[in-house]
Fold this sequence. Notes:
Blueprint: E1 2-4, E2 10-12, H1 15-37, E3 40-49, E4 54-65, E5 71-72, H2 74-84, H3 87-107, E6 113-117, H4 126-136, E7 146-151, H5 160-171, E8 176-181, H6 188-192, E9 198-201, H7 203-206, H8 211-225, E10 228-231, H9 237-245, E11 250-251, E12 260-261, H10 262-273, E13 280-281
Parallel strand pairs: 4-6, 6-7, 7-8, 8-9, 9-10, 10-11
Antiparallel strand pairs: 1-2, 3-4, 3-11, 3-12, 4-5, 4-13
The structure holds ligand C2E and magnesium ion (3 copies).
Organism: Pacificimonas pallii
Protein name: EAL domain-containing protein
Amino acid sequence: AAKEDAGGGVVVYDPALAERTGRFLELDTDLRNALDAGQLDLHYQPRIDLATNRIVGTEALLRWRTAGGDVALPDEFIPIAEATGLIDQIGIFVLAEAFDRSQELAALGLRIAVSVNIAPRQFRDPNLLAELTRLAALPGFDPGLFELEITETMLISDNVQLKNTLARISRLGFPLVIDDFGTAYSNMAALKRYPIDGIKIDRSLIGTDDFETLASGVLTIGKLLGVKIIAEGVETAQQRDWLAENGCHEFQGFLASPALPFPDLVAMLQHASGANDSAAPVETV
Ligand code: C2E
Ligand code: MG
Ligand code: MG
Ligand code: MG
């Protein structure tokens, strides 16, 4: 909508856009404040080995507990943080927090992998590589148990700088797992160019009528690449059983557990293991 101003000129004004922009900036400010105020927290979803039914890993997932007591989910605020660049600071916070928790698990004798999500834009932040290099050198820390999840869309463009960064991260010993696999259009040749250790079948594939067809395709690619294959968003025993019978290695999903506050994860692991042995079995229906 255009309005005539006092001087007779035309001012282009779009109330819908202004509202979106205003809301956007407001959210960015709120998110900055939340980070400073310690309102961002990580919850941990168990990952289960399909052959042994034991918890072998856990994914750290961001939660924002607002002052009003509501919990905001990452799909609502990560895109904003990515657009404004705040994701770099949030990402460093996530790394530090997940690292501390991984050390707590190790100290309790609970040897499971911890994975964190890294947004595409973070790979342009030199602090990310610096921080990973610092962590990898810490005594007693096994980067092989600290996995980084990257998105499939990132790998489609043949970016030399990205390739170098991922190669360096991989040489530090951190496993790289492609998240949301099956949602982009990457091909084998593109995947072969990167030091990939695992793929995560996107949950949108698991929930469809074509589940078996789609999952078969992804499993074939994973097997050809020789990487660990994880399914996410597994909600039924039928899905789990099919995945186990068709060569999938691990799963995450509400069938086993949603993401939990860290103390609840520890309680689950300790309950499941009964003692201080390493990976813990989990009861799923
Ligand atoms: P993702 O990495 O693919 O994480 C899996 C999402 O699926 C999580 O949602 C998880 O709670 C959900 N989920 C797991 N099992 C099931 C299930 O059986 N059914 C259904 N319907 N959902 C299930 P969440 O925690 O809301 O996170 C959404 C996305 O936000 C993540 O997808 C990830 O892309 C992003 N994200 C979360 N934490 C971070 C972070 O620390 N950094 C970055 N850059 N992104 C993050
Ligand atoms: Mg993930
Ligand atoms: Mg995913
Ligand atoms: Mg996702």
